[in-house]
Design brief:
The protein is mainly alpha-helical and 205 residues long. The protein contains 13 helices and no strands.
Length: 205
Amino acid sequence: MNVNAPLKKGRKYDQVLAGAREVFLREGFEGASVDQIARDAGVSKATLYSYFPDKQALFMAVLTMECQLQSDQAMGIEILQRPVPEALYAIAHSFLEFLMSDFSVQVFRVCVAESARFPELGRAFYESGPKQVQEELATYLASDRAGRELVVEDPYMAADQFLQLCRADMLLRKIFSVEDRATPEQIDRVARETVKTFLARYARR
């Protein structure tokens, strides 16, 4: 399987992705069948296969789409133009909402479960998800705008620390089904505490 192979796009491409997203979320990776995805998407199997060579490639396309949407929302130009504490809070809040979503947790479980059989799936997940978020945040932390309020010698290390603070204990509780979902109040609290801790380390004095 080559999860990085270029895929042909057409007028039903987004329709297939939307159907696949719902089936993967509902059935998981193992439980999802190409037949069910085609039915939910309202396309024929031939149409589906004209876009995606296999279920793994389709799964990765859905994941990449979701990660890009999350990145666009968290790291939008309007957000990055705010004062640094406000921008960091918006980034943390958006990241947490995505991280704690049913889709994100389901994807995480799938990638862990399948990474031994399909190591390229785990690598592709890391490249399109955690690594991309860290790189975009590191770029922001290294920017002149952030530099006016922060002293960051290693932007990649600082970005990793910020994202680890965001995860807190909520993610483990969600993954292990200790709690069904994080409340808006919990997400807000963790986002605010993340920013306070990060600024205590990196704010320019």
